[in-house]
Write a structure and sequence with these properties.
Number of helices: 46
Oligomer: single chain
Distance between the termini: 69 Å
Helix content: 55-70%
Length: 964
């Protein structure tokens, strides 16, 4: 079977996609965003919940498959290669290579190695090679998508770091004048970047401008004090002092020479013969073979089973130099390390010197040094000092921490190589298995070679579908490997046991506690769940050094366990009987985290909302584990704390699910129960479940009357008015709204609830045909929201204002208000408001007889609902009305059928759709049906008080058409 064409993605600038070298157009923004998000995952499966939060947020996370299915299907169609996008392990994975980023990283790794060795010319060449891949700001055309903002900023920050290294090398090579010009420009763009300003000062000094150099650092000092309230770092202060003293070493450059190893006459390789083929890591192997031709120290680091030893042996086999291998895994005594490396000279007066003399010019491979790192580091340092032509290749779960060391982390195999390895090692009858199931199996073992080979071996007794269904039990399944493998590689558990045994008690305790985090964690979160918070920082450092933990530099530092390591650690947590204690501490952390995020502005700003949803995978896992436990009441408090963020992003189904599970939590106070019932009633209303909502709110109101708490009463009144509005009881809605307004005016502490009641009253005025009064309400709310800095209030209020302005035929003002609303809605990722603003633009375009533009806007609004699988919206009704005007009556009828199938009779959506259905009957030439619908709808409008101007006007137009 010929290989599938390579899907190539370039992100260091506007998105570029190629298949087999041919450009591919992916036009829709969400599809482009999904493609890039999955490509950046390197072929690993990204869970639905993570994708939802990263892409748009407004997803029913109780049913992520349905929410993402439409989007994934469209992307498959756009790619024209459906097999590249696979469903695996509760998420999606894409077989793609981010070529520009991969190549830039490879060049950057070469640059960092050159920095360590002092090879300034190579630093310059490598940095330029890395920077050449940028075509503009990273992810330039995706910056409106939540994840790409942080990702793009991180990539651009990396670009700046590469530029700084390049200019540092230029200075070291004597190009101060040229570097000064570029440094001046970069420093202007980055006024608080201390290293940049120090390099600028050095460049100016080396071109004879000492006064200017000191002036720049003085300006930096002032700016740091005024904007950050801090002093310069010691390095900056030292540079300033050296400039003042005219330190002569500022002008000195001492180039470092490298020693080339003499070519041996007869290459000798002491390596075990491979028993299986080498699959994957072709690029790493080529790079490593080239690197072994030069002297120095290279350490391959990675977790258990990541393939360190196999890559080292394959590279050693390919080199033309003399190779000696020392296996360190069996060694226990400290002195045994020296004996193993030095050999017969270990007992001499200068064993290191003797070994250096015999090894100089060769390649020394030290395999599995993680348990003897300190002893190995000391010996390696001595050998390198005395053998300038020696190359040492070390494999270890943690680096040796030597200055001359080049650390090469072992990353998971890419998705294609992982699948190829599985296929080569599995039973013959499994070769034709479902690629998605194979991808899911590989992802479940983190796409590390050992786990893949062990899983493939199971196909001699299990089919691939049977194995795929049992991924959750991977720790029990992957226990029997090859008999000719080393003991620690005979099973995944054995490999993890080996790593676990090397840890101290402190690291073991922290490892099992942090395993409760399903979505990664911060240092502060880990400290909350640890038995002793003082142990966490040093333990995390040790775990990261041993490659059991990954560190992500996103908005600070974030840590993550590989799934196999996390599963293993959870079994250790259970064995230690600490699971309940750790889960309780994690829930306490979650509640404190959300409450702290809300403390300053009660989620008025997009930043505080984004901060909360960055932890959503953990928060979701915590909430799902709380019902039915002693932690349920704290889980309820967490749900109450998350209510506002859920509303802002329109996550009504998610909120309803958790309130339903937790509202009856034992030991909840009456106030908490009232709040839970009220919130539950509101989100049920927004889901169209009006009867259930009314029942919950009736219970909340009864309980609120037993409490002397105006806030609880206000909450119940406000949500009661919303349910009455949405189910079409418009006259009944005035009573709780006006009562709520009156109560809110009694105290300044109710100012925000007063604004909410006033906004709802404006909506009621629109629905009852009083847009001028609605305009007054919205304008009042917007003034208050601006004063408070409430971005969600402005997102919603400006959109509502635009709707009222449309009803008053003030179209230019409506478009301006919708555009400003978009600004806040995008910051909040508010997928309820963004489509409403598209509807505003569509309705204005219809009024101006620009039907093509109207169709574009209204279809865009409908696409939000389709992509989010959130059911029918008003956009369906307005698009149906437009299609009637265009003569597309069949599609219009289908849209209206969907509306009537999903809405409750006499709800506001149902009432609006009735006017358009009447117009459809006229367009279909069915006069009698149109007359019947007109009469019935007119009566219903009169009974309910429904008079929303654009639908009332549509009904009047039908009346006039029938009269003619």
């Amino acid at each position: 079977m010929p290989p599938e064409p390579l899907l190539e993605v370039r992100v260091l600038g506007p998105l570029v996609v190629r298949v087999g070298g041919t450009p591919l157009s992916v036009d829709r923004p969400l599809e482009r965003a999904l493609l890039v998000r999955l490509a950046l995952a390197g072929g690993m499966s990204v869970p639905d919940n993570r994708l939802a939060a990263d892409l748009w947020g407004d997803v029913d996370l109780a049913r992520p498959t349905e929410r993402l299915r439409v989007l994934a299907s469209r992307l498959r169609s756009a790619l024209e290669l459906p097999s590249l996008l696979t469903r695996s392990n509760g998420g999606y994975a894409l077989a793609a290579r981010v070529t520009d980023l991969t190549e830039a990283r490879a060049a950057a790794e070469q640059m960092h190695a050159a920095v360590r060795s002092g090879d300034h010319a190579l630093v310059r060449t490598s940095a330029r090679a890395a920077l050449s891949h940028w075509r503009g700001p990273s992810l330039a055309d995706l910056r409106t998508v939540p994840y790409s903002v942080a990702e793009g900023e991180q990539l651009d920050a990396w670009r700046l770091a590469l530029q700084v290294e390049l200019l540092d090398a230029e200075l070291a090579l004597g190009h101060a004048a040229e570097a000064a010009r570029e440094l001046e420009a970069l420093a202007g763009e980055n006024p608080l970047h201390e290293r940049l300003w120090c390099l600028l000062a050095l460049a100016l000094y080396r071109t004879g401008r000492q006064a200017d150099a000191l002036s720049r650092l003085s300006k930096l000092r002032t700016r740091l004090a005024e904007e950050l309230g801090v002093d310069p770092t010691p390095d900056t202060a030292a540079m300033e002092l050296r400039l003042l003293r005219q330190d002569p070493t500022l002008l000195l450059k001492t180039p470092k020479t490298t020693v080339s190893p003499p070519p041996p006459d007869t290459p000798t390789v002491q390596l075990p013969a491979p028993l299986t083929s080498f699959v994957g890591r072709d690029a790493e192997l080529s790079s490593l073979v080239r690197r072994l031709e030069q002297p120095g120290l290279v350490t391959l680091t990675g977790g258990p089973g990541s393939g360190k030893s196999r890559l080292a042996f394959e590279a050693a086999r390919a080199t033309k130099r003399v190779v000696r291998v020392v296996e360190l895994a069996p060694l226990q005594r400290e002195t045994a390390v020296l004996e193993a490396i030095v050999g017969d000279d270990a007992g001499g007066h200068d064993p290191i010197g003797a070994a250096a003399a015999s090894l100089d010019g060769s390649v020394l491979v030290l395999d599995n040094a993680e348990h003897v790192v300190e002893q190995t580091a000391e010996i390696v340092a001595g050998l390198l000092r005395q053998a300038p032509a020696l190359t040492i290749l070390v494999t270890s779960q943690r680096p040796l921490q030597l200055a001359a060391e080049e650390v090469w982390p072992m990353r998971p195999l890419d998705a294609l190589d992982a699948a190829k390895l599985f296929t080569e090692r599995c039973a013959t009858d499994a070769h034709s298995a479902d690629p998605e199931q194979i991808a899911a199996i590989c992802t479940a073992v983190d796409r590390y070679p050992l786990g893949i080979e062990l899983a493939a071996g199971l196909t001699r007794t299990l089919t691939v579908p049977q194995l795929a269904k049992r991924l959750a039990d991977r720790m029990r399944l992957l226990v029997a490997g090859s008999r000719d493998a080393q003991l620690r590689h005979t099973s995944l558990v054995a490999a993890l046991d080996w790593s676990h045994q090397l840890l101290g008690d402190r690291e073991r305790a922290v490892l099992r506690r942090i395993a409760v985090f399903a979505g990664g964690f911060t240092l502060e979160a880990a400290e909350q769940v640890a038995d002793d918070p003082r142990d966490v920082a040093p333990a995390l450092t040790e775990l990261a050094d041993r490659s059991l933990l990954t560190v992500e530099a996103v908005n600070g530092r974030r840590f993550r366990l590989l799934e196999t390591v996390r599963d293993y650690a959870l079994t250790k947590l259970e064995d230690a009987r600490e699971t309940d204690q750790a889960r309780t501490a994690q829930l306490d952390w979650a509640l404190s985290f959300v409450q702290t995020a809300a403390r300053d502005d009660d989620f008025a700003s997009a930043d505080s909302v984004t901060e909360v949803f960055a932890e959503w995978p953990n928060l979701l896992d915590i909430l799902d584990r709380a019902p039915g436990t002693d932690r349920a009441v704290v889980g309820l408090r967490l749900a109450l704390a998350l209510h506002t963020p859920w509303l802002i992003r329109g996550w009504y189904a998610e909120a309803a699910r958790h309130f339903a599970a937790l509202a009856d939590a034992p030991n909840a106070t009456t106030a908490e129960r009232v709040a839970a019932l009220s919130n539950h009633g509101f989100v049920l209303t927004m889901r169209g479940r009006f009867d259930q909502a009314a029942e919950a709110l009736t219970e909340a109101e009864a309980l609120a009357r037993t409490q002397d708490d105006d806030t609880l009463t206000l909450t119940a009144l406000y949500y009661r008015s919303i349910v009455e509005i949405e189910r079409g009881h418009l006259t009944d809605a005035f009573t709780p709204l006006l009562a709520g307004q009156a109560l809110a005016r009694t105290s300044p502490q109710h100012e925000r609830r007063l604004s909410a009641c006033t906004d709802a009253l404006g909506t009621l005025y629109v629905y009852t045909g009083q847009p001028a009064k609605a305009l007054e309400c919205y304008e009042t709310c917007i003034v208050a929201d601006r004063e408070y800095g409430d971005e969600h209030g402005l997102s919603r209020g400006l959109s509502n204002l635009a709707g009222a302005l449309v009803s008053l035929n003030r179209y230019d003002e409506a478009l301006k208000a919708a555009a400003e609303s978009d600004h806040y809605a995008r910051r909040l990722d508010d997928r309820q408001i963004l489509p409403l603003n598209e509807v505003i633009r569509g309705v204005v375009a219809v009024a101006r007889a620009d039907l093509d533009a109207a169709e574009k806007y209204l279809r865009s609004a409908v696409e939000y609902a389709v992509a989010d699988d959130s059911g029918v919206t008003h956009a369906y009704i307005d698009l149906a009305d437009l299609l009637i005007l265009q003569g597309e009556v069949d599609e219009a009828a289908a849209l209206l059928d969907a509306v009537f199938a999903e809405t409750t009779e006499q709800s506001t959506s149902w009432l609006a759709a009735r006017a358009v259905a009447t117009a459809l009957a006229v367009a279909q030439g069915n006069g009698p049906q149109a007359a019947t619908l007109l009469a019935e709808t007119t009566t219903i409008y009169t009974q309910t008080g429904f008079a929303w101007p654009r639908y009332a006007a549509r009904l009047n137009a039908v009346r006039e058409a029938l009269a003619d």
